[in-house]
Write a structure and sequence with these properties.
By secondary structure, the chain is an alpha+beta fold. Helices cover about 40% and strands about 20% of the residues. The protein has 6 helices and 11 strands. The two termini are about 35 Å apart.
Length: about 240
């Protein structure tokens, strides 16, 4: 398995953790953060002496079509993470073990959700707005923020955007430059949706009621159910 070190100025995390060989990494205490099985990335936190890091690695499935698609998304995510490392609100890219496995900075944050204290949500939503503005300043669009697990908020009010595999770099190419304003609105509407669902009082009063209705819980559940059905079909799991 190849090992590629990120040599960009952003290498390393605030805790001082560096990119270790895979064998050394796996000698340390591990905590599985996400494991949806074949065809999905597995996310594991490792507690290194210099601080925690996160390994994200794609797991193959029995479906050739889904394998091709998910591998391409993972490779694009690594490319995007490397490019955006050091951008406000993007965990630092620490290094790459293979085409579909990489190491990144651990951030002490959690997905935005209803049960969080209101002041936490208010600070976090403002932090997500700042992170998204920094991303758009790089002429990069995320395009997968409808999934709230990709929008993390921290106690200090910082916002973090993860899972960059669907993102597009619009900094070059006339067609992408032309599309950027429209695509950026898709990202902004995702944060707007979080405000409507979790802190509606933070929306402008003049269109608050309209936005809350637009992003109702029932519409969100319908999207999730459609996504689950599509995934089961692609993976060949008909249960």
């Amino acid at each position: 398995m190849s090992r590629t070190v990120d040599e960009s100025p952003g290498q390393g995390s605030p805790s001082g953790a560096e990119f270790p060989p895979r064998a050394e990494l796996e000698r340390h205490q591990a905590q599985v953060l996400k494991d949806d099985g074949p065809g999905a990335p597995k996310v594991v936190r490792y507690d290194l002496p210099d601080g925690p890091v996160v390994l994200k690695e794609w797991a193959p499935s029995k479906s050739r079509i889904f394998n091709w698609w998910s591998r391409s998304v993972m490779k694009r995510e690594i490319k995007n993470h490397r490019k955006l490392s050091g951008t406000l609100g993007i965990p630092r890219f620490l290094g790459q073990y293979s085409e579909v496995a990489y190491l990144m900075q651990w951030v002490d944050a959690q997905p935005i959700r209803r049960r969080l204290p209101m002041d936490f949500k208010e600070r976090g939503l403002d932090g997500l707005d700042r992170a998204l503005a920094a991303l758009h300043e790089r002429r990069f669009v995320h395009l997968d923020l409808h999934q709230k697990l990709n929008a993390l908020v921290a106690e200090d009010g910082s916002g973090w955007l993860i899972d960059l595999g669907q993102g597009i770099d619009c900094s070059s190419g006339p067609f992408r430059r032309l599309l950027f304003p429209w695509l950026a609105r898709i990202d902004r509407r995702a944060i707007e949706k979080f405000r409507a669902k979790y802190a509606p009082h933070t929306l402008p009063e003049e269109n608050r009621e309209e936005l809350v209705q637009r992003y109702s819980e029932s519409r969100g559940k319908a999207w999730k159910e459609w996504h689950r059905k599509l995934r089961r079909r692609l993976l060949g799991d008909r249960r």
